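Lecture notes, continued. The same structure-token format from the folding unit now serves as the input rather than the output. Read the line below as a description of shape only.
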């Protein structure tokens, strides 16, 4: 007998929730998500760009033998949900449903204030970058500051700002110079900057609209649910939320959910 489901959607932050920051999801998470796709709509929502969703999640689901039918229940809410991609089984590819990019003028303003503020505070670590890497990345609907770049080692990223104090000071200085934008701390070394309202509240609101579900039918997993964290808007909206510290916590919860369903 299948347990009656009260949730139709499982939504997830990515870094520190489904994986170790900036790395592909581990095989256990991939296998659990593939199983969950038989019962739920699965919605990763993160500040990452689309290509990172493919590398960190979709490619790993492929290794876990995900089917095209299952992928139709996977929804990629990119750049905090300001971009949305879904799988087209006929084309065997992903298609963009919507995108809300920043203007070129705003990109210049945000990029400049991030670099200037980090340099003034002594937190511009250009000498730490790998060849071809960059500290500031244009993700179309948001600009992301990653203090050590995108490809730095995990240990270095964890050690750079474990208490978020460096990033909080950068955000404070940016807000003094350029107040009319949204600044959020995420991951281990990142600051995401977007137009006002273009945070996970925007993404989760569009998730409800695109999937035609009610708030009470969604369960959200995130590691930065504290005030100022990039998952906090989801908490403020009143979604049922599970705060995790790592992908191991998420795996534990998913095993429990699947265990109940299979009874």
């Amino acid at each position: 007998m299948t347990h009656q489901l009260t949730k139709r959607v499982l939504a997830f932050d990515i870094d520190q929730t489904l994986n170790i920051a900036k790395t592909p999801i581990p095989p256990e998470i991939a296998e659990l998500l593939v199983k969950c796709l038989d019962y739920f709509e699965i919605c990763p929502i993160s500040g990452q760009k689309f290509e990172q969703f493919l590398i960190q999640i979709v490619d790993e689901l492929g290794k876990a033998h995900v089917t095209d039918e299952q992928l139709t229940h996977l929804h990629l809410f990119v750049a905090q949900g300001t971009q949305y991609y879904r799988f087209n089984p006929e084309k065997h590819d992903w298609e963009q449903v919507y995108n809300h990019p920043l203007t070129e003028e705003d990109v210049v303003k945000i990029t400049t204030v991030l670099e200037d503020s980090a340099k003034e505070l002594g937190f511009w670590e250009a000498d730490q970058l790998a060849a071809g890497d960059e500290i500031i990345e244009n993700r179309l609907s948001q600009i992301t500051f990653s203090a050590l770049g995108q490809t730095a080692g995990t240990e270095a990223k964890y050690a750079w700002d474990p208490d978020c104090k460096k990033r909080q000071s950068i955000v404070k200085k940016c807000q003094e110079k350029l107040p009319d934008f949204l600044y959020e701390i995420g991951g281990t070394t990142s600051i995401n900057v977007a137009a006002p309202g273009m945070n996970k509240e925007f993404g989760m609101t569009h998730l409800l609209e695109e999937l035609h579900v009610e708030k009470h039918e969604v369960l959200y997993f995130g590691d930065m649910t504290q005030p100022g964290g990039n998952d906090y808007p989801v908490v403020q909206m009143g979604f049922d939320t599970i705060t995790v510290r790592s992908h191991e916590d998420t795996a534990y919860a998913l095993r429990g959910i699947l265990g109940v369903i299979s009874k």
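Point for the exam: The chain has nine helices and eleven strands.
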